[in-house]
Amino acid sequence: MRTIEWDARSSELRLIDQRMLPEELKIASLSEPRQAAEAIRDMMVRGAPAIGITGAFGLALAAIHSKARTTKELRIDLEEAASLLREARPTAVNLGWALDQVMDEIDWEESSCDKLRIAVLSSAQKLADEDVATNRRMAENGAVLIDDGDTILHHCNTGALAAVDWGTALGVIRTAHEQGKRIHVLVDETRPRLQGSRLTAWELQQYHIPYHIISDNAAGFFLQSGKVNKVLFGGDRVAANGDVVNKIGTYMLALAAHDNAVPVYAVVPTSSIDLSLASGELVPIEERDPNEVLSLKVEGRATAPREATALNPAFDITPYRLLTAIVTENGIVYPPFLENLGKAVNGNLK
Ligand code: MRU
């Protein structure tokens, strides 16, 4: 199944509950926009493209289940739902992007509430289908960079689970694997939520792609060993200058790769590119609950004193100078990013 699906029979949104993996593949059904916002905030669904599409379907839930009798009332309900969903997580631009796509496409002059409801749902469904097509194109573009025999260091989870299907950076790895290239993946655990060991390893196992999980701290050691050929990750927001805001730990990884002359590729759909922001420092960085850092147990025992405090920024900024290229569905973007990212967004990259 897709990570996110609309159930036409019950008019509900069905999601893989990513908090339960790898132990259990549990599907959650949501019927209200409030639940969709909560699913995003609590990371039942996560990954930049996935939260964008969940937001879009959150609007569909608002439209379908609204008690509005006039188009004016329906518009108020949708605007309320949009602001609730927009606030769920601040960093990935895809969330606001997807909400804007749906809201901007609505013809508010439409006379019937039912037609408006159908229009909102179709718009969300269209975005979901486009997300899969975009990821496939991005993967084809990125697979050109992968050589037979490569060892690839990968951060966080950028697979089918982070999107509607296929994935971004992991999508590139999947396509290269399908092309018959032999690939070995070093999977960063990705503390504190462990999206690497919990989700990426789970996906790679299903695709029969060989991998080893490594602790985040080990990345520098492997990069220095000369055995890593490429570093691949996704992005939650790319600024106009090419700075990539992505899962915490990406910056340290890119620094170590750069120091060892290992190529670094970010794989992002153009919906993750925010040309309105000049550089990465302007991107809002989500601060999450310190308990995500403190609650880890090793051999069943606490790993921090009971009264310990922690800081938990969920994303960091990788400066553009550390990147070899940014792969998009419209082609591979090389420096100067300031010039070339705009061309990628507008679809006129050479
Ligand atoms: O906090 P998460 O798990 O939503 O963070 C996800 C990432 O940082 C991914 O690497 C990113 O969304 C890009 S891949 C689709």
Task: Characterise this structure.
Helix content is 40%, strand content 17%. It has helices spanning 33-41, 48-65, 71-86, 93-105, 113-143, 169-178, 195-207, 219-224, 250-259, 291-294, 337-345, and strands spanning 4-7, 12-16, 27-30, 151-154, 184-188, 211-214, 230-233, 237-239, 244-247, 264-267, 273-274, 297-298, 301-302, 315-318, 325-328, 331-333. Strands 6-5-4-7-10-15-16 form a seven-stranded mixed β-sheet, with helices on both faces. Strands 11-8-9-14 form a four-stranded mixed β-sheet, covered by helices on one side. Strands 1-2-3 form a three-stranded antiparallel β-sheet. The chain is globular, with a radius of gyration of 20 Å. The structure holds 5-S-methyl-1-O-phosphono-5-thio-D-ribulose. Residues 46-49, 92, 156, 158, 162-163, 168, 195, 233-236, 246-247, 314 line the site of 5-S-methyl-1-O-phosphono-5-thio-D-ribulose.
Oligomer: single chain
What is the number of strand segments? 16
Q: What's the story with the biggest beta sheet?
A: 7 strands, mixed
Summarize the helix and strand pattern as letters: EEEHHHHHEHEHEHEEEHEEHEEEEEH
Strand content: 15-25%
* Shape label: globular
Low-confidence stretches: none
Strand order of the largest sheet: 6-5-4-7-10-15-16
List the ligand species: 5-S-methyl-1-O-phosphono-5-thio-D-ribulose
| Distance between the first and last residues' Cα | 35 Å
Radius of gyration using CA atoms only: 20 Å
Structural class: alpha/beta
User: What is the mean predicted local confidence, pLDDT?
Assistant: 97
What is the helix tally?
A: 11
**Helix proportion:** 25-40%
